[in-house]
Design brief:
Strand content: under 5%
Largest sheet: none
Radius of gyration: 20 Å
Helix content: over 70%
Order of helices and strands: HHHHHHH
Structural class: mainly alpha
Shape: globular
Number of strands: 0
Length: about 160
């Protein structure tokens, strides 16, 4: 008689963290994974197309805002590259959580800039974006250990 399944073993680290709904094998967990992945794709498209692209092609609306702040084209391109990298990283499994945290930090900066340079005009947008980014960072936090293992292996 052959055994076709291998008993699962739990490490101390995996038993300390309870599984989140997005990782559950139930139908609810499956729907949650699909919803979370859809949210990540939508946010990635937003950051790449609607936010980074105008900065990287120096669209007049983006250039005007950065000139008003005194950051010029260098600041505009740096922010554009950061948003592009974050948007792409949201789609790479091992980088998802870190990307969401980094983009949240960028949104905190955007909120402060909106308050200080633009009198609060559109200040709610970065705050609204932090909510789904925080959800992604939390739900995909298990990938942080994978990323750490990759970094340690390469070092």
């Amino acid at each position: 008689m052959s055994e076709t399944t291998v008993p699962a073993t739990r490490t101390a680290a995996s038993s300390a963290v309870s599984p989140v709904i997005a990782e559950s094998p139930t139908a609810r967990g499956h729907r949650a994974r699909i919803a979370l992945r859809t949210l990540q794709v939508v946010l990635a498209l937003f950051y790449v197309i609607a936010s980074a692209l105008p900065k990287l092609i120096a669209h007049p609306s983006a250039a005007e805002g950065f000139d008003k702040m005194g950051w010029g084209s260098a600041g505009m391109y740096i922010i554009g590259v950061l948003e592009l990298a974050g948007g792409i990283a949201l789609l790479i499994p091992v980088l998802q959580s870190v990307a969401a945290v980094a983009l949240s930090g960028l949104m905190v900066g955007a909120f402060v800039v909106q308050l200080t340079y633009f009198d609060g005009e559109n200040a709610a947008t970065p705050l609204i974006l932090i909510v789904p980014l925080a959800l992604i960072a939390w739900a995909r936090r298990g990938h942080n250990a994978d990323l750490l293992r990759l970094v340690r292996r390469r070092a």
